[in-house]
Every structure is written in C-alpha cells, then in structure tokens.
Amino acid sequence: MENKKEMRNWLDALNLDHPLVIAGPCSAETEEQVLKIAHELKDTDANYFRAGIWKPRTRPGMFEGVGALGLNWLKKVKEETGMKICTEVANAAHVKLALENDVDLLWIGARSTVSPFIMQEIADALKGTDKPVLIKNPVNPDLSLWLGGIERIYKSGVKNIGAIHRGFSSYQKTKYRNIPEWQLAIEFQNKFPDIPLILDPSHITGNREMIFDVSQTALDLNYDGLMIETHHDPENAWSDAAQQVTPSKLIQIMKDLKIRKETDAEAEYNNALNNLRAQIDIVDHDIISLLGKRMIAADGIGALKKKKNVAVLQSKRWNEILGKMVLEGEEHGLSEEFILRMFKAIHQESINHQEKIING
C-alpha cells in the first residue's frame, strides 16, 4: 500500500491547533446519559463525540449495547451541541444504519480487524463514502493484518482513513489492559506517515489513572490524536468503568499534556529529539521487563539445581551463551566489548538469584 496524503484530508480540514480528540462514553446507556455527557464536552477540546451502541463483548450475558436506538440519541447530540458524532461498526448492517443516520465518523474495532472476511464485508458496505473511517489495530500484534484491513477499506474507495492504536492482548499479566507494543506502532508510522494515527489510551491502560502518561507518550511520538472514553459518572458506567474519565478530568488532561508543535527549525529539532527519546524510553522499559522475566527463569533453574544438588556455575553453558550473544550482537552493530560487559553483568545477577534460592 502506497503512502497517500489524501488520507489526511479529513483531519487537515478540521484545522486544529491541538491534537484531535474523540471523547464520550464507552457505551450509550440512556438518552439522558448520552446528552448529559455531550453537553459537558461541547465546549472542550473534543472534536468528535463517541459512544458505542453495538458493543462486542468477550463473553455473552454482558451489556452489548442498546443497538440502533442509540443512533437517535447521537443525532440529538449533533442537533443540541453541534458536535460531530461517531460510533463503532462491526458488520455491513451497522455500516448501513450509521450512514443512513449521518454519523460523521465510523471506527472498526480490534475484534473486527482481526478477520479479513469481516473487514471485506465492512469495506464493501462502506464503498465510496466520504465519511472518515478509523481502523483499530487487531487484538494480536500483527502489523500486516492491521495494514491489510486498512488496505481493504482504501480499495473500496474510502479516502478519508485513519488508524487507532488500542494495544494488544497478551496472556501475560502486566499493568496494562492491552500491551501497547509501541515499537509496532512506531514501525507503522515510519512505513505510512500519511495515515493519521490516533491513540486509544482507555483500552491500552484499562485504568483512568494511567491515561495521562500514556497519552503524553503518544504525543511525544507524534500521534495525531486521542480517543478517550469519558463518562459523567464513570464508577457506575455499564461497561469498562475503570478506564473512563469524567469530562472535567479530560479537560485537565488536555491542559496538562505537553504538545510539541513544529513552528520553526528549533521546534522541529526539539520535536524530533523528543520523539527519539520517547522511543528510547519505550525500549528501556522493554529491556527491564525482559530482564525481569529472565531472572524468573533463573530462579526456576536455581530451584532445580537445589533439588539435584548441582553447582550454580556451569562454565560450558556460560561460554556457549557468550559466544552466541557476541555473534548476534555483531549482527545488530553492537561491539564485542559491550556484549561481554553486559552479559557478564546479567550472568552475575542470575548467579545471585540462584544462590539465594539454593541457600534459602
């Protein structure tokens, strides 16, 4: 798929002096709830009012949205506040209803993006629309699958396109609801800089207290906007209560965020520098996380050695690791001296962990 500057036309036409903001409740619950939140957001930085009316849920029996009834509530939002409205579509029937009700922007969720069959069905239903269509990353970290979904929408004749980074599922327990995998999103940006990229910190964090930090990282990485779930009474929301913020909190977040603007040569330099530093911060976090996992494995080895009364230091195994790592380091432009110093430190920490287990 080629870079297409026309994909940015819908965003550029808004002529914003701040990042794009899509805000509103995870789910449209009642007409009163939808309108109350919309009126609290109408004079903020929010450019689009979002609400899920069809809610794909992991397990049956959970609240799955009010359905097409919610479209009437969204139309009232537009009439009463003047805000543009948007919602998620997961099949051709949703697309048809959304377009008939003049929804201004549609997004396709992670559970839909993962299936080429669903994406083609949605693409066919969207054929020729001038509405902006945003495609969330698939639930699994597969860049080709994400780009394939975008390409299907583009080939259907939709030119106003964007991508939403909402994180990726993992069996590992982390502080995130969905792991950001920032490197994959950075690769996406590098390959297709003309596709607007929007962060969904609500679904990445699953925790309203983390929304600000993750949003700031995204802006440091030159993301074009944010989709933040916002509810007037988040504690009592019918879905995803823990990750929604109040309208007043959203206003504060947008005030506190440091937005990098490319207004002159110095600002452009600082913006590029902050972007690269943000990438380094992400990698450093990943390194620490991986080293922690390595030490957990070392603890397991220590327990086995204790059980079998085996010495901690196994010289043959250690020399094999060093030789292999030196060769792999060279492939990545890392000097032998650096690899030796680094892995000797890692090995010593592993020995310390194992000795604690054995002597414990």
TrEMBL record:
Which UniProt keywords are given for this protein, alphabetically ordered? Transferase
E.C. designation(s): 5.4.99.5
Is Transferase one of the keywords?
yes
Annotated Gene Ontology MF terms?
chorismate mutase activity; transferase activity
What general EC class does the enzyme of this chain belong to? Answer: isomerase
> Does the record carry Transferase as a key word?
yes
Q: Which GO terms describe its biological process?
A: chorismate metabolic process
Q: Where is the Chorismate mutase domain?
A: 267-358
How is this protein named in the record? chorismate mutase
Q: Which organism is it from?
A: Flavivirga eckloniae
